[in-house]
Structures are given as structure tokens and as C-alpha cells.
TrEMBL record:
InterPro entries: 4CMD/NDH-1_regulator, AhpD-like, CMD-like. It comes from the Eukaryota. Gene3D superfamilies: AhpD-like. Residues 18-97 form the Carboxymuconolactone decarboxylase-like domain. This is Carboxymuconolactone decarboxylase-like domain-containing protein.
């Protein structure tokens, strides 16, 4: 679930969550000390460790849009196997693979439309 989808919902938990995320969480991204890519990389690792697959999808997609490579995402998943366990790393690799596939297909479709 994204911030935008939370903002569109009419229930109290969604509204409070969206407000909290916008005010508290995103403000930390502007702090000095870490680049946005580094924060994004950390988010991937934490979502793997916490077994938060829906959020992992969001953060892997965001990381790729920020310029992290597929290789870097794969390495994060592989490295997580050491500290989070092989099942967690494999699940993360599966999620990453799905995202890579979707992004490649959407790029191919957009290229075909332009031709």
C-alpha cells in the first residue's frame, strides 16, 4: 500500500497512517548524512529482515527508480540470507525478480508504442 493509496481511503486508520508517514517518515529522508539511494538500500534490507513483503515491493521499485541497479538489489537480497536466513533472502529474490520482469515488460510496451 502506497502513501497515495492510503490518502485516498476514507477509513480512520488509513488517514492517520498517511498523515504519520508524510509528516514523520518522509521528513527523515531530507536529513544530512545519507544519500537517498543509501536510505533506499537500507529500507530494502530492513523490509527483508522484518518479512514485510508488500512494503519490500514498494521499496525495491522505488530503489530502481532512484538508480539502484538490479545487481545491487540482488546483492542486498543475497546478503540478507546471511543475517535473515535463506528463506527470507529467497523470498526477497522472488519479489525482486517479479519486479524486474514487470519493469522490463512495461519498458518494452512503452518502446513499442513509440515505434
Amino acid at each position: 500500500m502506497t502513501l497515495m493509496s492510503l490518502q485516498k481511503r476514507d477509513d480512520l486508520p488509513s488517514k492517520v497512517s498517511a498523515e504519520y508517514i508524510a509528516e514523520v517518515c518522509f521528513s527523515s529522508y531530507a536529513r544530512p548524512g545519507l544519500e537517498l539511494k543509501e536510505r533506499s538500500f537500507m529500507n530494502i534490507a530492513m523490509m527483508i529482515a522484518l518479512n514485510r513483503t508488500p512494503e519490500l515491493r514498494i521499496h525495491i521499485t522505488a530503489a530502481l527508480h532512484l538508480g539502484l541497479s538490479e545487481e545491487q538489489v540482488v546483492e542486498a537480497c543475497r546478503h540478507a540470507m546471511i543475517y535473515c536466513g535463506v528463506p527470507a533472502g529467497r523470498e526477497a529474490l522472488s519479489v525482486a525478480s517479479d519486479i524486474f520482469h514487470v519493469m522490463k515488460n512495461s519498458t518494452k510496451q512503452e518502446t513499442a508504442k513509440m515505434s
